[in-house]
Design the sequence.
């Protein structure tokens, strides 16, 4: 683990694998750093940089007090510090909330390209009724942290329903350790619920927006909206792939990414 010296209270910690151009991999809401393990063998020509997001291991000193409307800005600033810490202009590769953070970071960071798999953006009509953060917070206040995290997993990972969630969780590698992240996930969800996609995102670097047909419909809709708001963007939709695309089908995703980077 590499750790930079704190600047303005921000300590940046990350793992680095291999040599080559830095490929900064930003995980999503409930995923640990290990989420990227299936992806790394497909990018051996790059130097994979995997940070711990604020609140997920290495954090800002005052992360627990960070308001929801500050979360995305603080995470984007964290990524910008990371961009400054690595040699050369990196590529940002983000999944879900990590994808939204990658796009926001690239508005003011020297990066070569951005890869965004289903950025955590809510369509306007969906966002206006979103209440996941409130429902999770109420369960946490009642002392039921496990149920709070289950509500997140149901809505984000299984929006079409699941027959036996407990059986699925029993096979999920990060369960139940991820319950420790409950408060951070509430803050993250509030940030997502408050985020409004601008008509134009000021990202100069080329961006590849990825989505899958087996993920939530609202995220596929948002992926198209993010694509439309970017000046230099390509949209690729994978048939039969879910919201967990990079971990679920790493070879397929990597092939699309490399084709894009070769053309960009």
Sequence:
């Amino acid at each position: 683990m590499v750790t930079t010296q704190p600047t303005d209270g921000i300590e940046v910690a990350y793992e680095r694998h291999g040599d080559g151009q830095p490929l900064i991999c930003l995980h999503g809401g409930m995923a640990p750093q290990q989420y990227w393990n299936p992806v790394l063998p497909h990018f051996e020509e790059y130097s994979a940089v995997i940070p711990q997001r604020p609140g997920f291991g290495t954090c800002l000193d005052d992360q627990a007090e960070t308001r929801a409307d500050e979360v995305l800005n603080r995470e984007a600033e964290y990524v910008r510090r990371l961009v400054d810490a690595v040699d050369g202009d990196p590529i940002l590769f983000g999944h879900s909330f990590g994808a939204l953070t990658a796009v926001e970071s690239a508005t003011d960071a020297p990066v070569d390209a951005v890869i965004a798999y289903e950025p955590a953006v809510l369509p306007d009509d969906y966002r206006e009724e979103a209440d996941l953060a409130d429902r999770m917070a109420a369960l946490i206040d009642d002392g039921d942290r496990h149920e709070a995290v289950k509500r997140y997993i149901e809505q984000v990972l299984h929006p079409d329903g699941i027959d036996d969630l407990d059986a699925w969780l029993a096979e999920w590698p990060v369960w139940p350790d991820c319950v420790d992240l409950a408060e951070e996930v509430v803050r993250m969800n509030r940030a997502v619920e408050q985020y409004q996609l601008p008509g134009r995102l000021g990202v100069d670097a080329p961006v590849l927006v990825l989505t899958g047909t087996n993920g939530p419909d609202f995220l596929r809709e948002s992926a198209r909206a993010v694509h439309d708001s970017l000046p230099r963007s390509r949209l690729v939709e994978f048939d039969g792939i879910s919201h967990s695309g990079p971990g679920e089908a790493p070879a397929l995703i990597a092939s699309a990414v490399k084709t894009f980077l070769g053309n960009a």
